[in-house]
Amino acid sequence: MAVIRDVMPAFELYQPGSVADAQKLLEQHGPDAWVLAGGLDSFDWLKDRIRKPKVVVDLSGIEELRGVRTTGDGIEIGAMTTLTEIVNHPVIKQRYSLLAQAAEVVASPQIRNQGTLGGNVSQDTRCWYYRGGWPCYRAGGNICYADTPEGRNREHAILHADRCVAVNPSDTAPALIALDAKFVLRTPKGERVIDAEDYFIGPEIDITRLHILQPGDLLTAIRIPSAWAGAQFYFEKVRDRNVWDFPLLNVASAMVLSGGTIERMRIAVNGAAARPLRLKPVEDAVRSQPRNAATGEMAGKLSVRGAVPLQFNAYKIPLMRNLVKRAISGVEEATWTC
Amino acid sequence: MDNQKTDNDKAAGTAKAAERQYGTGYKLIGKNYVTPDLYAKVTGQAKYAEDFRAEGMLFCKLLLSPMPHARVKRIHSDAALAMPGVKAILTANDLPAPADTLTDNGTVIKASKWGERGLTNEPVYQGEPILAVAAVDELTAAEAIEKIQIDFERLPFVVDPLDTLRPGGPNPRTDGNVWTRPAGPNPGPPEVTELKWTHADFAELDHGRLPRGKAPDEWAYGDVDSGFKNAELVLDETFVTPDTSHQTLETRSAMAYWQNGKVYIYTGTQSTAQTLPAIARWLNISPDNVVFISEYTGGGFGSKITGGVSMIIPALLAKKTNTPVMMRISREEETFIGRARPSFQGRMKVGFSKEGRITALDMFVICDNGPYDSVGDAPSSGRIVSLLYQPQAMRWRGLTVLTNTPPRSAQSSPGGLQGIVIIEPIIAKAARRLGVDQVAIRRINCPEGKAPFGPLAQGKQQYATSAFLKEALDRGAEQFKWSERVARTPKRRGTKVRGVGVSLSCYVGGTIGFDGLLVIKPDGRITFQSGIGNLGTESVIDVHRVGAEVLGVPWEKCDVVWGNTTKNLPFTCVSGGSQTTHAMTRAAHATAMDAKKKLQEIAAKKLGGKPEQYEVANERVFRKGGAGMTLAQAAKYAIQLGGVYDGHEAGADLHKLTKASVAALAGQGLVAAAKDNYPRDGSTFSYVASFAEVEVDVETGKYYIVDFLASADVGTVIHPRALGGQVLGRSVLGIGHAIGQKWVFDPHYGEMVSKRFHHNKPPTILDVPVDMQWTALDIPDPETPVGARGIGEPPVGGGCASILNALSDALGDEIFQRAPVNADTILTSLEAGRPMQHPLTAHI
Questions:
Q1: Are the beta carbons of B496 and A245 separated by less than 8 Å?
Q2: What is the pLDDT of residue B188?
Q3: Angle at the Cα of B617 (from B612 to B623), degrees rounded to 5?
Q4: In the predicted model, is pLDDT for residue A338 greater than 60?
Q5: Which among A15, B54, B140, B770 is least buried, having the fewest CB atoms inside 10 angstroms?
Q6: Of A2, A152, A248, the CB nearest to B823
Q7: Residue B828 with chain A: CB contacts under 8 Å
Q8: Which of B139, B746, B764 sits opposite A244 (nearest CB)?
Q9: The pTM is what?
């Protein structure tokens, strides 16, 4: 069978108006159904004809999935809220600006107008072998093309490789982990609320997907508790170009200080492994330490212990080390003067 | 609208470009104006190839080769053809035999057996089109292609030029791996032959240096050995430049249909006039049976010089099905068939005097040609480096090596960018070692006046018509506040380091000998017939401002006809090689002078006296203090007189295409047509001095371009806003090569992994400073009547090299030895204290 790309195959399109209707459709069609949020991940798979679902369930008409609500303890963001809405939302900007900073550097303005928070955290990896349709482990085969002597792996993983060396490309995911967000799932068995970091999985759990959603599940909302509201936030994304590009690496942290001492901290990086990594050893090591360069350096070195470079991605080790350091001890003039 | 300013403004040398006035003493030349195509482009009314529709139109899709090199043994297409809605399949067997070329003086150039034909039974790169399916819609065509099974015989392949040069290395084509020119007094066209180096040659690779085995092409002048012996400093550096896709925003979609034995083709091009004979040759039909329509083209950069051979696919399917066929080319397909700049693996040994003057230069380059026609980048690189840096002695050697990677073509400053990018970091390093200022070292080596360049022919070198690059360098340094930036301390604040860089840049800037054609209508309006391609450079319209200026006619009375070969266009240069502004302002000038001569003769005939007593101005032809007539009246008389005056007779030296257009316009008014026979002493080049400042974060390797200025020596400025667009736009094209654009190949499978924009990273508007600056000297070139030279390509090399030089100023010389330079290169090299990027591996 010859291969052709860039012509979307036919499918049945359903546009339910409620989560309940969406769930009914997913239950009805099982693995034949594809869930469509903003489409920025889905359309690439569909247009390349690498995925050919019989049924697409489009969530864009479900109002209850949109919007930011204040709750008793924090906020709840509908999974279909666009990244632009998040960047501009006054409560998020005021109290949870870490998320706004992360959302603002995703892709491009046009993509942020269409892309959703739920979609951004649920997006698939961008390994160019996997996305190009090569029959690798993640695609159900028995080889990883990136992890070979000649494989081109500049943007691949330095940590927790397990047959697959692809990375999670989300910018909002580490910010949500740092904010101790909770993800609200609607499954056929009912609602589940899980910690953000538990939403993501590595290849040792399931090599074919980056998150825990099974066919029939929906991510409906993301809750951010008030525990880290107004904390000292740090977000930095390093990418080649100043727009469009996925992170080579990013870091997100929330820190509570008393005086010059770190009382507590949550910190996560993405682009280093198949899932965003909450750096718990670092959090433990810096607790009650002075917030200074020495602590930052110690934390940076700790964070890359066990990192294994591939042919082309060794730079990610000093990069991760330095980003973790900067998250803790800051960077002189982090904003550009141009 | 149009300003009339005085010389005071020229004196305000440090005024920003936006405020500078050009065109002193002219009404139209050097003034901004709105081109007639602008509203159509901005409102979406402009039709590009993909916008056209014809009744019953079919759509075709391509089946691309999954392998880098193979032979098609059998195509199983029954299941596809059985689908309702599938109308035809086109394979390489359906292509007409490639036609020989007949040049204007009757020489026959036989069709190359290695030439690219559009479809193939022996794919030579992964992604090459093997066949096309025409169906009622694209969905059906795609499903049909998925039903096609092809039996392949795999053939050896190679994607890195060094791998095929190794003894025993695989060949990309069955006939060999290198383009060579046959020996002999009258060498024929280039041939593909086999060339292997020795194991001893490859020992250099172990030291990170380019091996320099046998090179089929070589020239030299001066005494290179004693130049090195007498040098204060000798540097020997190896550098690799990236392959960069042209990535025109408009892909090469094409639509075609046949009517009464003629084929009508709609697609993008860089030359309306010259694409017609190319189509005729590809289809092996008479040019009289070709109609080519191309009013708007979304970019070319050298990839659509006469369109692309792929346009024959819908043409042949349209013939087969007797129905119009649209072929829409996707971005990924465009990455495969849309051309790219070849990478150079290069090495230069350069000797410097203590002031920084280049005493000797030994240049060796390998050009990755892809699998098809030989590109001229390697020889061009030698000529450009020779001109731009005026080495006292020079030796150039080059190979053009074939690989199983997508086809290359010239891309804006072909060979020029690569040569400049290889030598400029060496000059920057030498300046640091010798303690010489970066601007000063380039000023010492810079070309001036009738600067010589290139190999000797009959004991003599060629030379440039003029060069004012020293002035451009000085003007740019002043406007960029170079000395202040260099003196600024500290260079480092926290984790941020700033660096400044300067680069020379140049490329060819003009050809001669083309035709112009205009009609003065009986209503007094002038119609300029423009055969120039409209690919966004605006020269299609700009050059005709010269005609209006010479004839003293307000621009509001002028119309320009372009974009369709049935509209009687003259033989025009292609819009490639930065030649258009130079070539076609000459042709426009010659044509306006022909019109003037005819107006004078008509006036003398009707009103008495001698033609030379009459002047042409203010829409009239008149004698001083005496009789005269309007241009409208003169046009009416022209029709009465017939003969040469209204197009019934044409100048003998006009090109046959122009003569046909003149004849078709006969009787419509005063028809003026002329060939550019103006003399020219030297070859025309344009020059740019590029300046950049960067800020690097040494903890992340991320850097920003803080400031950029390009100072241009392009002769007389014709249209400032368009010129600014070209200078800055082409600087950005060059900048892309520094900041991240490249191809990446998996060499084990011979397959490109960087197929989309987000993989191969072309530069974006957010990657360059908001306030990029340009300025132009506006000094006329003395060897052309209007003084204007071309501009597209000269800024490109400097765009890239100025960034690289700014980076090495910030970070030192132990960071990179290839472009592009990104965080990965910077961080690993800073960690290790030496360049860590693979020195010579291709496509990483």
A1: no
A2: 80
A3: 40
A4: no
A5: B770
A6: A248
A7: 314-315, 318
A8: B764
A9: 0.95
Q: At what angle do helices B469-479 and B438-445 cross, to 10 degrees?
A: 170
Asked whether the predicted pLDDT for residue B9 surpasses 50, the reply is no
Minimum Cα–Cα distance from B60: chain A residue? A7
CB pairs under 8 A between A and B: 142
pLDDT band at B802 (very low <50, low <70, confident <90, very high): very high
CB-nearest to B332 from A6, A154, A325 is: A6
At B713-749, the pLDDT tens digits run 999 999 999 999 999 999 999 999 999 999 999 999 9
Instruction: Summarize pLDDT for B251-291 with one digit per residue, the tens.
Output: 999 999 999 999 999 999 998 888 999 999 999 999 999 99
Question: By the 8 A CB rule, do B638 and B630 touch?
Answer: no
pLDDT at A333: 61
Instruction: Give chain B positions within 8 Å (CB) of A243.
Output: 764, 766-767
Q: A319 and B827 in contact by Cβ < 8 A? A: yes
Distance from CA of B705 to the nearest CA of A (A): 9
Do the Cβ atoms of B688 and B712 come closer than 8 Å? Answer: yes
Instruction: Inspect the interface and report whether the beta carbons of A238 and B493 lie closer than 8 Å.
Output: no
* Among candidate residues B414, B511, B412, B535, the one with its CA nearest the CA of residue B792: B412
Residue A321 tokens, joined: 């080390």
User: What's the count of helices (H) and strands (E) in chain A, helices before strands?
Assistant: 13, 12
pLDDT digits (tens, 9 = 90+) for B154-177: 999 999 999 999 999 999 999 999
CA atoms within 13 A on the CB side of B365: 32
Buried b / exposed e over A119-135, threshold 16 CB at 10 Å, is bbbbbbbbbbbbbbebe
pLDDT in tens, B48-61: 999 999 999 999 99
Six token digits for residue B459 = 């004991």
Tell me the chain B residues in contact with residue A303 when contact means C-beta distances shorter than 8 Å: none
In b/e form, how buried is each residue of A209-230, taking b as 16+ CB within 10 angstroms?
bbbbbeebbbbbbbbbbeebbe
Q: Give which of B72, B146, B753 to mutate to test A binding, by max A Cβ within 10 Å.
A: B753
Q: How far is B810 from B798, CA to CA, in rounded Å?
A: 18
In this structure, are residues B321 and B58 in contact, taking their beta carbons and an 8 Å threshold? yes
